[in-house]
Specification:
By secondary structure, the protein is α+β, with helices and mostly antiparallel strands. The protein has helices spanning about 5-30, 85-95, 110, 120-135, 145, 165-190, and strands spanning about 45-50, 55-65, 70-75, 95-105. Helix 2 (about 85-95) packs parallel to helix 6.
Length: about 190
C-alpha cells in the first residue's frame, strides 16, 4: 500500500460512517422522531387493517427491548415472495428491538369455501352405477362416499399477488410501523 491508498481507505471509511448516521437521521425525521429531544421506548405496538376487493389485510407489529434488531415474521403465503422487501421496510424504520411482525388475510367466507367439482361427482356416480349394474351389486351410495372421492373437493385456483394489492398491503405495513413508532414516542415521554 502507498500512503495515498491508506488515506483513500480512511476517507472511504469516514464517508461510510457519515452516510450511515445520515440515513438514520433522515429516517428518524421521516417519522418526526428527534432523538436529541426525547427518549424512545423500545416497547411498542402497531396494527393496521385495510380492505382490498373481498379481502381484509391485517398487519401487526410488536416490539420489545433488545440491543440489536431481532426480527421474526409470520407472513401469509400470498405475501411470502415479498418477505425480503417487508424485512427491508421494517429494518429501515426500526433499527433496534425484538420485533414480531405478522401479516394475514381474512377472506369472505363464500370465497374461502372449497367448491364441489360437480363434473367429478357425476363422473364417479356414473362409473359406480355402471359397475353395480354389470356386476349385479345392490347400490347403496350416499353423498359422504361421493364427496370423499379424489378431486371432488379441491381448490384449483392459484392466487397471484397483484401490484395493486401489494401497494395496499405495503400501505398497511407502513401504517402499523407508524403506529408502533408513535407508541414508542408516547412510552418514551412517560419515562
Amino acid at each position: 500500500y502507498t500512503r495515498n491508498d491508506y488515506f483513500s481507505c480512511k476517507r472511504l471509511k469516514y464517508l461510510q460512517i457519515y452516510y450511515f448516521f445520515l440515513e438514520k437521521f433522515v429516517l428518524l425525521h421521516k417519522f418526526n422522531v428527534h432523538p436529541y429531544k426525547m427518549i424512545l421506548s423500545m416497547t411498542g405496538y402497531g396494527k393496521a387493517s385495510v380492505t382490498f376487493e373481498n379481502k381484509k389485510i391485517n398487519v401487526e407489529v410488536k416490539s420489545l427491548n433488545s440491543k440489536a434488531l431481532d426480527l421474526s415474521t409470520r407472513i401469509a403465503p400470498l405475501y411470502r415472495e415479498k418477505e425480503m422487501e417487508i424485512r427491508q421496510i421494517i429494518s429501515s424504520t426500526l433499527y433496534r428491538g425484538k420485533i414480531e411482525f405478522s401479516i394475514w388475510v381474512d377472506k369472505d367466507e363464500k370465497d374461502s369455501a372449497t367448491p364441489i367439482n360437480a363434473d367429478m361427482v357425476e363422473y364417479y356416480y356414473q362409473q359406480i352405477n355402471e359397475i353395480a349394474y354389470h356386476k349385479d351389486i345392490s347400490l347403496e351410495l350416499d353423498w359422504a362416499t361421493l364427496l370423499r372421492m379424489p378431486d371432488v373437493m379441491t381448490r384449483q385456483e392459484v392466487e397471484i399477488l397483484s401490484e395493486e394489492e401489494w401497494q395496499v398491503a405495503r400501505g398497511a405495513i407502513n401504517e402499523a410501523l407508524r403506529q408502533l413508532v408513535e407508541f414508542r414516542k408516547q412510552e418514551g415521554e412517560a419515562l
